[in-house]
Design goal:
Blueprint: H1 4-7, H2 12-33, H3 66-72, E1 77-79, E2 83-89, E3 95-97, E4 100-102, H4 104-107, E5 109-116, E6 122-131, H5 132-144, E7 148-153, E8 159-160, E9 163-172, H6 175-186, H7 207-214, E10 219-221, E11 224-231, E12 236-237, E13 240-241, E14 249-258, E15 261-270, H8 275-284, E16 288-293, E17 299-300, E18 304-313, H9 314-326, E19 330-332
Helix pairs in contact: 3-6, 5-6, 7-9, 8-9
Length: 334
Amino acid sequence: MMTGDRRQGLDPRAITSRRRLLAAAALAPVLTAASPGVARALPAGMTGPGHGRRIRPVPTALDDWADVAKALGRSGNMLRDTTYHTGFPRRDLLVVSDGVVVTPGLALGTHVAFVRYADGSTMVMGDVVVTEDELQHVTDAWQENGIEQTALHKHLLAQTPDLWWTHVHGHGHDAVALARGLRAGFDRTGTPPPERPQPPALVDLDIAGMEAALGAKGSTEDGLYKVLFVRRETIADGHLILPPGLGSTSAFNFQPLGGGRAALSGDCAMRADEVPHVLKALRSGGIKLVELHNHHLSEDPRLFFTHFWAVGDGVALARALRPAVDATDVVPGG
């Protein structure tokens, strides 16, 4: 029996070619939407291929995380009504980099954040400071307790002692189990117990001049001046929508060195198409590049992060940073 195409006298090879062209035309919009560096416009409530329906974070209060605080062994604070944050500064370490004694607030602060979602699940992510001697031990502990690592990198150039920073990630319906998993790793480090809050320290920097140069206001904390920028896009990690600023911020920390000078340790969040412009802007301003890496494994849009370092006049450093800020799609984070 002859097919309709053969009855019409069409060459089978031409039929196959036509079908391939039609298939390619159908796929073109999908391939275009999946191009790297492009923030995709997806239907409301949906993610990219394979992720299913996106789930939004829900507001929580400090009391909702009491059991997590107990498991972690210290209290935390709420950020933007959705993120429970806890810091573990490495005050036990005397770290020197580029001739500067690095304070815990500048670059030695372990941070973890918990977020509750509309399906009742919890996601935790964080950035953890470990010594080179501790690294394999904490990795083993987390793997035994279901905590994933999504990055292993440096925040500083040559430093003593040798340090590493590792990003952690977990997701499940038992927030306390996630906290215990993190704690299992922390207990294999020299991370000290929490200290009582100290009175605010004077920050010897021209903050007004630095804010004018950066076009944003910052804050003083732990004797440092800090400026934060957040991405404009909605960022999702797989099917989980991240609260604004979580894991997608550009953060600049300035440690006063006297006479208006500062040590700068910073982290800049970028799409792939922004990376070359930011790196060039930083180097043009005399800022040293330390690292280029990711924080997530499946975020959308894909983000890259660069850590950098500089020592100099605070206002001059802020001016050098401004072109890098302007090369990214961010707004001041307050």
